[in-house]
Write a structure and sequence with these properties.
Blueprint: H1 11-22, E1 25-29, E2 32-37, H2 43-52, H3 55-69
Length: 80
């Protein structure tokens, strides 16, 4: 993930970020979607977004779900 500081003087980007607070914005090129601009309201949003888009995390969740479907479950109370 790349981090780029936003300057308050960049009024176009500031306007888009303010709009993104209300709803995600789909960015297009030649009429085709190429990205999404979404506002992160706090550090938790940033952490959640990073985790949900981490391929290793997604694979671990998929593997855990498969194991649970096979009956290999563990109660939280039994986790040490």
């Amino acid at each position: 993930m790349t981090t780029i500081p936003v300057q308050p003087t960049d009024t176009q980007l500031t306007k888009l970020l303010n709009l993104a607070i209300e709803d995600d914005i789909v960015l297009t090129r030649d009429g085709q979607p190429v990205g999404v601009l979404l506002a992160l309201r706090d550090e938790d949003d940033h952490f959640d977004h990073a985790l949900e888009n981490d391929a290793r995390f997604v694979q671990r969740i998929a593997a855990a779900r498969l194991e649970a479907e096979r009956g290999n479950k563990q109660r939280w109370a039994d986790v040490k």
